Amino acid sequence: MPEMLSLALLLFLVMDPFGNLVVVNSLLGKHTTPKRRQILLRESAIATVILLTTAWGGKWLLSALGLGQASLSISGGIVLFMIAIGMLFPSRRMIDDEIDDNPLIVPLAMPLIAGPSALSMVILFGEKHTGIDVYGAILLASAASAFILWASPWVFAFLGRRGANALERLIGMLLIMISVQMVIDGVSSYLNLPNP
């Protein structure tokens, strides 16, 4: 159980629901609050299915493509680093500000909620941990993220734009450190060095 909670916390940080508050409220600003919540719950459910499917088929995919854990860790760290940079410097964000009236899958479920870094993370989890811990962590992190996004109008009103931006930057700094560690782990694994 502690292992599952630890994985869920890490995945929750990578999914970055607090950082997504600003983006979500901008993208869905013209919808009423009930409609916004309906869209967010649907997209969160789709993102959860995507993450669970990736965790289930990740090992097979890596094997089929001839990829090792080291390459996944390094590439995942690089993508996570780029996303974290976008959180620290919003002018470099990789999500468009305009979407359809009723978005389906793109860009909310993927790549906003289940982004490349989250997908890489669950594949790495599957390589190192038991299936129960991985699937449980995905469900816990997804449920917590979905709740925060569902309550985003209240949370956004409480934090305000400045508070949400400050929180996003704080999480961005944490993700930069996590991404650097992922790259270090990948290089250490490739070179068969002990992790620092």
From TrEMBL:
Matches recorded under InterPro entries: Multi_antbiot-R_MarC
Transmembrane annotation, as ranges: 6-28, 40-58, 70-91, 103-125, 137-159, 171-191
Chief site of localization: membrane
Classification via Pfam families: MarC
Keywords (A to Z) from UniProt: Cell membrane, Membrane, Transmembrane, Transmembrane helix
GO cellular component: plasma membrane
Family according to the record: Belongs to the UPF0056 (MarC) family.
Protein name: UPF0056 membrane protein
